[in-house]
Amino acid sequence: MTLVAAAVLLLAGCDGSPTPVVTDTPSVTPSPVVSVSPSPRVTPSPGDPLLDVLPEGATDPGVTGAIITAQYFIEQYAPMIQTGDTAIWDALSTDQCAYCADASDWARTAASDGFVVSGGEIHVDESRTRGSIVDDEWTTAVLGLVVAQDAIQVDRPGSEDDSVVKATETGLVIGLVFADDRWLVDGVNPVDEKEIRG
Question: Where are the domains of the chain?
Fold first, then answer.
């Protein structure tokens, strides 16, 4: 599989497992589309630099904090694939998030193989964001976001093997868990944007 094909698969949500069928909007209860379990990848410490870069309100344990975190997380995709720096993405992902790990691995591989990636900026349609919170043993959230992604160009210096992944619009169902004073992304499932409805 080529590097560009892997990028397309990431945008389409292929993480090696079957894509679940979305039958319900994520505005009331967590759906089986994403697995939400408390297994954060990182634990903050005093002076944690991640907490310093999160947008205002991201650490709120309510749905507003979950939405701010999810939007910020998704917007980190382009800077990550352009630079190969996965620090913020990884710090906001749990070990259970296969989509998160696949995107992080792809960005590191592209950088180490000398590929130059440009574009791919993600724009969230905030007017269409939906979400719900479940308070049980752990506070979890399931959100629906509609995002537009700019075209991505991938090329390797000295090679004519460059490709463009077209701009796209899609829906994302994102599961988060609130642990260690922050929201962490526990699962991402791309769906048809029409699945994200009020």
Answer: 3-13+58-195
pLDDT digits 0-9 by tens, 12-21 = 443 333 333 2
Handedness of CA 75, 47, 137, 63 (dihedral sign): negative
Q: Tell me phi and psi for residue 126, to 5 degrees.
A: -60, -25
CA separation for the pair 174, 31 (Å, rounded): 10
CATH class of 3-13+58-195: alpha beta
Provide the angle, in degrees to the nearest 10, between the axes of the packed helices 98-112 and 3-12.
160
Strand partners, 174: 143, 188
Q: Distance between CA 111 and CA 133 in Å, rounded?
A: 37
| H-assigned helices in the chain | 3-12, 49-53, 63-75, 77-83, 87-91, 98-112
Spell out the alpha helix ranges (H) of 76-195. Answer: 77-83, 87-91, 98-112
pLDDT value of residue 47: 54
From residue 139, give the alpha-carbon distance in Å to each of 30, 111, 177, 181, 182: 11, 36, 6, 11, 11
pTM, two decimal places: 0.77
- At 156-197, the pLDDT tens digits run 877 776 678 899 999 999 999 998 889 999 999 999 998 887
Residue 196: predicted pLDDT: 87
